[in-house]
């Protein structure tokens, strides 16, 4: 078993650190945010998927959170899970990755395996992360081992977690790949070595771009399907009976989260910067998916119009403002641009979300509280918009509700339910 430091104790780093501790590695979670460090050491988790039982179990096995980078001096393995938000030019802002790499360089000992997990463009590990951690004195592949391993965590997914989601690894040299494979194999069921770091980096962006493009495909199809009087949801169900060569994606109000709307542009940015031409599929998918909340707003306007109502002054209830079902994360949620548009049109916007008690849509200076009397608010609304089908919602009650409902998820079928 190894002495492991996981840098960044957020959605990605904390589950990884706890899983490694569970199998017997001696794990320190290195985190800049001292409040998070204190809370973790007291057994208080800030990540929805990590329950207190899991955290206290790891603490009892020696897991500790710390803000002191000196722990790297004892580490056999350092895993970096820091944020890579969208930078000004469309590529990732690598500030946190570079910071973490410099911290490692100041403390690392010879023989350590350093793994980058943060999502980024192909080439980052070889061109930026590796050279910084190795500095001038250490040779990668003999004195120090450097690899990339993309994170595939899916918040709220109860079936697939750290242990049973196959993990791709790719090192700068073959020796780096082998070391990273051996490390992950100690606590993850299936480890998949890629040819090099850049192929592992590309695998992650391919996965997210695949989702982005396929969601854009159905988001575009849903618009003309309505005009052609075709029930696209029913057509997708029919197509999905094909046992090979098809994967069902469903239209929705737009893509959210920090991965799907963000990561593919790291790839298009890299292609443009290095090669000078566009990655057109990504650009098109971005255009279509970014337009989806505007399409929902237009559907709202048309439904109200059919009911002889104007948007201005209408009371509109949005259900689920998180970016996906059954989680609280609101990053890049399509509910935000939708709310912005409805407010600009003069609507009275209210919302309910069992996971989000207060909501301030991006681009507004208004803060909303989740309504407490959901049934009463539904009765008072001119239109209810189902944005996220959280398990909390009683769909059969919504089907029977005495109010017009716009279902952006294709899960309702009541008489007063309208589709996208
Ligand atoms: N959350 C997901 O579902 C998910 C899925 C796949 C990939 N990723 C990728 O994984 C990476 C991490 O994402 P996340 O969602 O865990 O981010 P997060 O914001 O939840 O957590 C990152 C943590 O790192 C800490 N941090 C930043 N710089 C640090 C430093 N130099 N030293 C110590 N701590 C530092 C921050 O304080 C924060 O607590 C990103 O590149 C993201 O794109 C995330």
From TrEMBL:
Keywords on record: NAD, Oxidoreductase
SUPFAM superfamilies: 6-phosphogluconate dehydrogenase C-terminal domain-like (SSF48179), NAD(P)-binding Rossmann-fold domains (SSF51735), UDP-glucose/GDP-mannose dehydrogenase C-terminal domain (SSF52413)
Keyword Zinc tagged: no
Gene3D superfamilies: NAD(P)-binding Rossmann-like Domain (3.40.50.720)
Pfam families for this protein: UDPG_MGDP_dh (PF00984), UDPG_MGDP_dh_C (PF03720), UDPG_MGDP_dh_N (PF03721)
Xref: SMART domains: UDPG_MGDP_dh_C (SM00984)
Keyword NAD in annotation: yes
Record-level GO BP terms: polysaccharide biosynthetic process
Any GO molecular function: oxidoreductase activity, acting on the CH-OH group of donors, NAD or NADP as acceptor
Protein name listed in UniProt: Nucleotide sugar dehydrogenase
Residue ranges constituting the UDP-glucose/GDP-mannose dehydrogenase C-terminal domain according to the UniProt record: 317-414
